[in-house]
């Protein structure tokens, strides 16, 4: 590092690019960059102005200090993509603020404002001003830290603080319920447990392993697909018009839906007029709004000051004149065409020119409603889902005479309300209700399953709520009233009609498929179950039970496979063919954020998506894994019936081909499985023979070792015997020689010297010396 540099200030633009997950990340791995920042021997200060999410937040955690502007937000939202913070976030954040608060921070995945982040210890200072002011404040701050021991500021040192293991276990159970069916929250808690019990590097290894499992899983891919699909909804091909101003909104109808829409508009900063011609209904509606906000204060999701400000944005009225200056008016009365047409005729006379006139109808014809006005170009459907202040989807329903300005303004309205907004065509049920209208809930309910049994299966699968609870939330009277008026109700044979007749409308009056207490907590209701069982008796059905997996198949596979004609085409493909949806991914968005209300888990098996996932086979009544057709369908499908039909025909043909290929693969797999079983048996036999042979070989080797040992002993004995024999032979030879010399000596001594051979004196002395040596040696 440059010796002239005394400290470092880091500022940036954004976190990780999600598209890089599929294409590979550019540049050095982010964890290495963060490690280098943290290991720096010079002070490193993060200067944040705006939003620091994901990788941006993790970079900030790697710095020694963090400063932010008042308007800044920080967060680790990876859980919403089915993954976890993979650059040390699960290890550094718990070491900074503690394990328990880190669970909520990462498992909720919501951005946190600067003041709140500073309160828990993420930011060291919060600065007034823009980006330049924050950077300058960071430079000044860094200059005061030149003599600080940086080891005390490195989060990789030490372990996370936690209250106790039981607290984390309780958090795990909490998020099993809050984010049922999702793998990422549980993996995040596993990493946080490692941060509290292991060294940093060991914890990073746990983070890496858990990230890899999630990244390779199908759930994260589905959630990332939905991330892009959600943003794609706002792109309307060929729409160049600019939206009109949206500062005020009028809501006609103070019921459950109207009150929810009013809350959405107030929270978006709009001035709201809530109108109901019935004073009692209006008072009741305002009371419900206040109760909802009181619960928010009780849950501490809003302060009383915030609630007071929101309520000040809502004005109650009984006269249509109060709507005269509203930029947009949303009609939210019950589903009655005559009533809606009457209301729109009145709005046409009262509202200012250019005001957007929207209907919150769930299925009625927008064109017919627009016909009640002299300005059909300003009329559009704005289909909210109940409760409007909770559900994220908004379907904007265009009519043939709806102007581009109106469409652009309605899309901006959804964006302002922070709704996932899709533009759809005008047909019965539009997209979400039409596609989900073929679900198997009514079938199961009339085949002997109680509401809680169906809901338990759906919620275990990952749904926020089961279909019974969803009907209670929306209101059983929504369609029951119209069926009764049309003379279609059969309360003795139809469970829904029986519930409506018994005035069991759902949450709105405290009783539906379940009963509800004052806090809208549900519980089983013997009275509701008695009504259902009476209908069963009337139609000859016995109560039954079913595996949860079978319940899920019957609930949701009809959405994919059942058609409205003999061709059995997916309803999603029909929506494309008829031009009701702009693109396939819009249908997925409507299903996931609308009636299914799930968290992004891959639930609509065979969804008609941008990647056109098609269900291509079933075995034993269960859907097998989908095959993926990587073919983007053109946006022009919405406007070209011919292209739509061609695309659908290609899709059907491709589905047939895939079915045939699947059947062949299954047959081949069965043959391979049988062959594999035979190979396993043969392998077992060979392994047994090998074990026996190894045992025999071991015995032979042991015998051989014994023989060799005995042979060595024999050789040693033979050697010793040979040595002994040699010794004996030498001694015998020496003894014999000794005897010979002794005899010679004795004979020599007995002879007179005159008789000795004549020899020289030298020889005689030598001979005598030899004799003496021999005798002395003996």
UniProtKB/TrEMBL annotation:
Residue ranges occupied by any 3-hydroxyacyl-CoA dehydrogenase C-terminal domain in the UniProt entry: 429-516
Keywords assigned by UniProt, alphabetized: Coiled coil, Fatty acid metabolism, Isomerase, Lipid metabolism, Lyase, Multifunctional enzyme, NAD, Oxidoreductase, Peroxisome
Coiled-coil features, chain-numbered ranges: 669-703
GO biological process per UniProt: fatty acid beta-oxidation
InterPro entries: 3-OHacyl-CoA_DH_NAD-bd, 3HC_DH_C, 6-PGluconate_DH-like_C_sf, ClpP/crotonase-like_dom_sf, Enoyl-CoA_hydra/iso, NAD(P)-bd_dom_sf
Any one GO cellular component localisation term in the record: peroxisome
CDD domains cross-referenced by the UniProt entry: crotonase-like (cd06558)
The keyword DNA damage appears for this protein: no
Presence of keyword S-adenosyl-L-methionine: no
Location(s) in or outside the cell: Peroxisome
UniProt domain 3-hydroxyacyl-CoA dehydrogenase NAD binding: residue ranges: 249-426
Residues spanning the signal sequence: none
GO molecular function, one term: oxidoreductase activity, acting on the CH-OH group of donors, NAD or NADP as acceptor
Major subcellular location class: other
Cross-referenced Pfam families: 3HCDH (PF00725), 3HCDH_N (PF02737), ECH_1 (PF00378)
Pathway: Lipid metabolism; fatty acid beta-oxidation
Family annotation (PANTHER family): 3-HYDROXYACYL-COA DEHYROGENASE
Name under which the protein is recorded: Ehhadh protein
